[in-house]
Specification:
Strand content: under 5%
Radius of gyration: 24 Å
Structural class: mainly alpha
Largest sheet: none
Oligomer: single chain
Number of domains: 2
Order of helices and strands: HHHHHHHH
Shape: elongated
Helix content: over 70%
Mean pLDDT: 79
Low-confidence stretches: 127-131
Distance between the termini: 50 Å
């Protein structure tokens, strides 16, 4: 049965609540129980309701972008820490940093080395000001 929300293209309060619960990782059955519909209805919204899917995907993208930005910030700090360890006076610290760098290299090893070298060459005060 179509609701007025379905016809207008806007989401019903139940659909909005369902999206919030989907974003927290709840199952269709938990969502259905919470919003007062059947599990099949929730599944239909997820897979066949264009506006529901669009809003859900937009909200997922917003959350993902926030996580990506946070990871970028963490990566900058981690690279600074690694660069500092590579320049440490203690050979054990240098060796540990080099081993860690080698383990985390993966397919992007040469690009990572270039970035680390660039950071090492950049004065510490300049590095802290980067975003």
């Amino acid at each position: 049965m179509m609701t007025n929300a379905d016809k207008s293209g806007q989401l019903s309060p139940e659909q909005e609540r369902a999206i919030a619960l989907i974003l927290t990782g709840q199952t269709d059955q938990v969502i259905a129980d919470a919003v007062g519909v059947t599990r099949q209805t929730v599944n239909g919204w997820r897979n066949h309701h264009a506006n529901f899917m669009a809003v859900l995907n937009q909200q997922r993208a917003t959350i993902w972008e926030a996580h990506v930005e946070r990871l970028r910030g963490l990566a900058t700090g981690a690279i600074d820490t690694l660069a500092d360890a590579l320049q440490d006076d203690d050979p054990k610290e240098q060796r540990a940093a080099a081993v860690q760098r080698t383990k985390s290299g993966g397919g992007a090893y040469s690009e990572s080395v270039r970035i680390v070298r660039e950071i090492i060459a950049t004065p510490r005060d300049d590095r802290r000001g980067r975003n």
